[in-house]
Amino acid sequence: MNIDSKLVKELRDRTGAGIMDCKKALIEAQGDIEKAIEVLRKLGLAKAEKKLDREAKDGRVEAYIHHGAKLGVLIEVNCETDFVASTDEFKELVHNLALQVAATNPIAVKREDIPPEIIEREKRIYEEQARKEGKPEKVIEKIVQGRLEKFYQEVCLLEQPYIKDPNITIGELIKQYIAKLGENIVVKRFARFKIGEA
Questions:
Q1: How far apart are the C-alpha atoms of 71 and 76, rounded to whole Å?
Q2: What is the pLDDT of residues 139-162, one digit of tens each?
Q3: What is the pTM of this model?
Q4: What pLDDT score was predicted for residue 87?
Q5: Residue range(s) defining the domain that contains residue 13
Q6: Mind giving me the DSSP string for 90-132?
Q7: Which helix (H) or strand (E) holds 45?
Q8: Is residue 151 part of a domain?
Q9: HSE of 74, CA atoms in CB hemisphere, 13 A
Q10: Residue 79 domain-assigned?
């Protein structure tokens, strides 16, 4: 199939992907630019998965103070090189992650970071709720697991729906940036401060 160079340029402008990747995607999508974007997204996420094991020793610390100065966030996001750390795309990601923390108040970056005593407390609460609702003993464990998954989606930054696009999680957003920037990106830590909160 012969692909028009204008179509390749349009796809490249819309996605930032390389010329050859754009051409291959358009061939696979038979010239349909929307399908080609989907092909590139899948390819990019696959490439991003391979980068997740690489060490991220550089990065940025972002400070976000909400209007009125009653809420603030500090967040550290790491990448592999100072070159990527100084790009506008990386700065934009770090800023948006700070906004996410300000808006949603997560308690951990990922579920493995939640202290075991908090998870045990939540399990006990969900078990008691299920029993009070009259659920049979044999399904209580499944109910607890389901509610625990929902809890993780609410309190773990990487599992939360992105506030600017609820169709993706923060983890998926970061993978998109890994694919775009070609380096591993890791949210190291964050702190959220609100006047009057302990």
A1: 17
A2: 989 999 999 999 999 999 999 999
A3: 0.72
A4: 96
A5: 5-51
A6: HHHHHHHHHHHHHHH--SBSSGGGS-HHHHHHHHHHHHHHHHH
A7: helix 33-51
A8: no
A9: 3
A10: yes
